[in-house]
Amino acid sequence: MENAGYTTLSRQSGLAREMQIVANNIANSATTGFRAEGLIFSEYVKPVDRGASLSMGQGNVRNTSFEQGALTQTGGTFDFAIEGDGYFLIQTPSGERLTRAGAFSPSAEGDLVTYDGFRVLDAGGAPIFVPPGANIAVSGDGTLSADGAPLGQVGLVRPIDVSDMVREDGVMFRTDAGYEPSENARVLQGFVENSNVNSVSQLARMIEVQRAYELGQSFLESEDERVRAALKALNT
Fold it and tell me: Are 176 and 164 in contact (CB under 8 A)?
């Protein structure tokens, strides 16, 4: 295969990967706490004969948008939204994770958990117990109270290195660089944060990627016909 074919194939591979990311964004446009993703293309340049060079692009880095999503009022006692830079701290079987999805509920044991049953942790990294039947309130700094008596404080943290954040299970992230208390975040009770996906721009991008992919496919087919015609001419 000639250089033009290799270059186009690398481009097609990146476009196919971006199409998957865009489709996933659109599918999660209504998912609470979801963060939109994008794809970063890098360029590989290799010198060839007589001072020329070959350039190939590859989409190989996923980029997450951490922009604040819109807040929707639900009135739910255990629906919490974060306003500002911060994350809830969640305990999973794989370790502690960070999330912006604050639609919680009490478990049968009385622990505050996510929809997946993962326990929500307080500022000290311990599970939060919610007394059954109590009137639960939360203040802006995350302090929980039951019938006016303090229960604890919801853990609000932020990653030390945002670029180290790795997405897991849709709305949860892990960070190997660690995290620290978030001083500027505020908790709102009775609200949830919507996905920050812009459906209109994502649909427009999907059309652009599809057209670019079709153009590349057309080029590969034309190049294949050209090579076949050249080989046929040489053999006659």
Answer: yes
Crossing angle of helices 199-234 and 3-27, rounded to 10°: 160
Collapsed DSSP state (helix, strand, coil) of residue 191: strand
User: Tokens standing for 24?
Assistant: 């996933």
What contacts 126, CB < 8 A, 6 or more positions away? 152
| pLDDT < 70 regions, the chain | 1-7, 43-44, 51, 53-60, 224, 236
Written as six digits, the tokens of 84 are 């500002």
Smallest Cα–Cα separation from 116: which of 169, 52, 181, 167?
Answer: 169
Write b or e for each residue in 165-180: b if 16 or more Cβ atoms lie within 10 A of its Cβ, otherwise e.
beeeeebbbbbeeebe
Going from N- to C-terminal start, the domains of the chain cover: 3-66+197-234, 71-193
- CA atoms of 217 and 226, how far apart (whole Å): 14
pLDDT digits (tens, 9 = 90+) for 21-79: 999 999 999 999 999 998 887 766 777 777 676 666 666 677 889 999 999 999 999 99
Retrieve residue 150's tokens. Answer: 């303090």
Distance (Å, rounded) from C-alpha 56 to C-alpha 49? Answer: 16
Label the pairing between strands 112-113 and 179-181: unpaired
Distance CA(160)–CA(87), nearest Å, equals 12
Angle, vertex CA 163, rays to CA 157 and CA 165, nearest 5: 55
> CB neighbours of 131 closer than 8 A, spacing ≥ 6?
110, 146, 151
Report yes or no: 58 and 17 within 8 Å, Cβ to Cβ: no
Please give the Cα distance from 172 to 87 (Å, whole number).
10
